[in-house]
Backbone:
């Protein structure tokens, strides 16, 4: 006899379907000055790849689209390439580069550091990022 935890785990495993997708064929692309987000809808959610070019800054290039003072999208992201500087509304600041994983709550600004594109895979904010308010 299975206990409830094992039954739940088996049900979850059986409910998941096999999907293999590529950002070469995204479901949606939202472009903004100096960047874009490519969105894949799969496994019941949205995954985004952000490509941010040198000169990009959230407060200059996305803020006018969404109309908020700070980025209100929470992020959970893997940093594939380039370096991004993050400034939280409480004053906390840090740089994140290739191989980093960051979890950002609402209330931040960010910008590309250096001359390389920043490439991020984001599991939290893809469905609504850079959509008009």
Residues:
């Amino acid at each position: 006899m299975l206990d409830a935890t094992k039954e739940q785990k088996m049900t979850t495993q059986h409910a998941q379907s096999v999907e293999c997708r590529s950002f070469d064929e995204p479901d949606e692309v939202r472009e903004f000055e100096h960047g874009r987000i490519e969105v894949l809808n799969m496994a019941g959610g949205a995954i985004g790849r952000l490509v941010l070019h040198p000169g990009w800054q959230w407060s200059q290039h996305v803020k006018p689209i969404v109309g908020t003072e700070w980025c209100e999208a929470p992020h959970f992201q893997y940093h594939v390439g380039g370096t991004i500087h993050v400034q939280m509304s409480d004053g906390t600041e840090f740089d994140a580069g290739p191989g980093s994983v960051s979890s950002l709550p609402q209330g931040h600004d960010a910008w590309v550091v250096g001359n390389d594109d920043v490439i991020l895979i984001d599991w939290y904010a893809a469905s609504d990022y850079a959509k008009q308010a």
